[in-house]
Design a protein that fits this description.
With 225 residues, the protein is an alpha/beta fold. Helix content is 33%, strand content 18%. The termini are close together. Bound molecules: ribulose-5-phosphate (5RP) and cobalt (II) ion (CO).
Length: 225
């Protein structure tokens, strides 16, 4: 299975966002993880589709780069933002299972707008919730499952190792599904994530606050093999 390192731009210098994104991809980052927070679903505010749109445009025009924009929507009513994120250039739209009443319809809407679909689950939410929306398990309908390894809302928090039980359970049931872990992932914690079955590793602080981004990403990749 292919592994991805997804640098979380939450820990980048927002005043130099495009340059930071270009540099982190050059340092070996595979996909850009864009944390969208609305001050309701989580107690923090970050960025929305207008900033993503400017970033996508600058990356194309200045750096000739078509990056993969993995957008993690930590928002209430994610349905409201599908159209805007698609228009802004999002590659993947990951919503929280706790934030919607009708994930099946939401998944169809996201796909209808040409984006890949991810579903995310907070630490306190049992995995069984994803099976509670009719006959079909939500995990069988998506491209990616995001297991939060911190309480969503802020970068720089401590990794919650007990969340890896969810990763193991998903991997057992879905051998080919992309499984992302997000929160506190670093050179110290990535190996256990990979061993549990994750193949997509979000890291903000661990990369952007490191002195040598390329060396850190290379080390993370080696540990995840
Ligand atoms: O979704 C998130 C927080 O809600 C971030 O993606 C995550 O916290 C990454 O930051 P760090 O690697 O610093 O923990
Ligand atoms: Co995130």
């Amino acid at each position: 299975m292919v592994n991805f390192i997804s640098p979380s731009i939450l820990s980048s210098d927002f005043a130099n966002l495009a340059e930071e994104c270009y540099n982190v991809l050059n340092a070996g980052g595979d996909r850009l993880h864009v944390d969208v927070m609305d001050g309701h679903f989580v107690p923090n505010l970050t960025l929305g589709a207008p900033i993503l749109k400017s970033l996508v445009k600058r990356m194309k025009e200045k750096y000739a780069t078509n990056a993969y924009y993995d957008c993690h929507l930590m928002v209430a009513e994610p349905e409201k933002w599908v159209k805007d994120f698609a228009a802004a250039g999002a590659s993947m739209f990951t919503f929280h299972i706790e934030a919607t009443k009708d994930p099946v319809a939401l998944i169809q809407t996201i796909r209808g707008h040409g984006m890949a679909v991810g579903v995310s689950i907070k630490p306190g939410t049992p995995l069984s919730v994803t099976a509670g929306f009719g006959k079909t398990d939500i995990l069988s309908m998506v491209d990616l499952a995001l297991v939060m390894t911190v309480e969503p809302g802020f970068g720089g928090q401590s990794f919650m190792g007990d969340m890896l039980d969810k990763v193991r359970e998903i991997r057992k049931r879905y051998p080919d599904l992309e499984i992302q872990v997000d929160g506190g992932v670093s050179v110290d914690t990535i190996k256990q994530c990979a061993e549990a079955g994750a193949n997509n590793f979000v890291a903000g602080t661990a990369i952007f606050k490191a002195e040598d981004w390329a060396a850190t990403i290379a080390e993370m990749k080696a540990l995840a093999k």
